[in-house]
Fold these 3 entries.
Entry 1:
Amino acid sequence: MENNSNEKLPMTIYDKTVKGREEIASRCYHLAPRVRSLLVMIDGRQTIEELLPKVAGLGMTAENVQALLDEGFIEARIVAREPEPEPVPPMPVTVAEQFRAAYEYYTRNIKPTLGMRGITLQLKVEKAATLDELRELRITFFEIAVRAKGRPAALQMRRELDEIFGLHEVAES
């Protein structure tokens, strides 16, 4: 199901009440240590689904959260959360096409950008047999390009390489 609207999704989070904060500060209500640990973990930002896996090792369950709620140590609040963005499918590029594009990018840019500093890098590009081997050279290329052409030009080249390798999403509208 695609959710392109700006609609926020309702969710229930739990936060400490004044009574809960008093227990944390002074132990005046004498909660059991494990239950008190659960109370400490409740921070007003997590849903029960996010919290329970973190306290499962203590033997805490939804019933323990409900007991804290019933006894007035915590309160439930309904808040709105941004929906998770739909994942962007990767560009339909084969590994062979990516390899060819990266290889061509390096060979087209190393000599004019790096000059004599790029000879060793060019040899490594020519020896590369896999896409991963070419991907490993991008940091070296970037570092030498910074020294040779300056940071802004090198960042632009890194963005172009990252696009070829699919290392970030291209945000064009």
Entry 2:
Amino acid sequence: MSPSRASPRRSTAAGGAALVALYDIETATTQEARGAAATARSELARLETDLAERDAALDLSAEVAGALRAYAGVEAIVASVELVLRRLGAVDVALAPYMAGQVVLGRSARGMLGPDMLTVAAHPDLATAVRDGEIATLAPEAAAGLEIPEGLGALVVPATCAGEPLGLLLLVFEGEPALGSGALRALATLGTALGLALMQERLLTDEPGGGR
């Protein structure tokens, strides 16, 4: 569009000379520039958030790796789960070993869950997480089916080793969990690490004289 200004209007002040007022009209080009600037600011904010989440996820992964090096078996698992509970802002967390189509849910870190034994086939979200080996996000309505207190959502993180499901990490949050991609990648890595720890614990238990 061409002109950026409207025709002037004349008015006369009381007892004075004529006044001229000019009004700016925003062109299509200016509107497009404003829109592009707003989009760029939004994208920059998103990238800053992603970078912050990535850094936090890397820190968490490093801490968990340190705990797994410092401890073995059950101690390593407990230390790792406590780290996740503190760093991700969860209100409770539990690791439930998987065996013969069921997960054995012991008492959770904050006592909100368990003890219980859940048949995986009876809970579609758990079944999908076990089958696909992928993290499942449960809104409060879905989490209620796992006897998670009302108003709380959950993340279900499979703990696997060589493709074999060995357990599920359940993280409880206020409302529906809303973690970024960086935190979810860290949890997927943690699931693999916990799977290795569970396999180690299983091998130790199965050794002659190692039963408990």
Entry 3:
Amino acid sequence: MNEPTIYNILIIVWFVLAAAVFVSLFFFVAPYGRYLRKGWGPSINDTLAWVIMEAGSPLIFAACFLVGKNPVTFLSFIFLVLWELHYLHRAFIYPFTRRGTAENMPLTVLMMGFVFNMVNGYLNGRYLFTFSPGYDNAWLKDPRFIVGIVLLVVGFIINRQADTVLRNLRKPHENDYKIPYGSLYNWISCPNYLGELLIWIGWAIATWSLAGLAFSVWTAANLIPRAYANHQWYREQFPDYPVKRKALIPGIW
């Protein structure tokens, strides 16, 4: 069985797994952060866990670029830079900017996240730099690329702004949860998740690929149930939580 065949089978399996994860996460919440609980085996410091969990994606994506068979173009380089900027931040900057006392992450969650990021890095990197027809400069003017990049940039801004609001809620070494206000937090509980969704929906449109679509579907499968859980948690923990605030989509849900 050759690599293209294995790749296509993996894409199909990846979509099926995303659907299963989406349903299951409405019944149990992944045990990290505020939902950390016993019964998930050994755990390690969550800062180290975040680094390990996220670092594989930029490494494997870069490797796919280096061994790719498609000619290197301005567009392929742009896709490389966008991916690497996001994941280098997620792996080596974000974990060290969070405030609060150190917590732990179960190794089972770490390994699931590590595999998730490695597979997504492989599927997207291998398609873009080897299996795709290639992206020439004409793609810069294609409406799909333009719309995708706009969504990606808007999502990035929303995500970074939301993370900044959350970070500023706590002083160094403070661990209490508080109600966030300002920006999109005035309308929804999880603008950071909304931003992340927009980033990868934008990526899927800009690359116009099944690999990109699979990643955006997986992102939704993980974050939509998590947003619902967070929204319910806020309402249970804070009697004065804004009644009109939705979970993820302003004015809708």
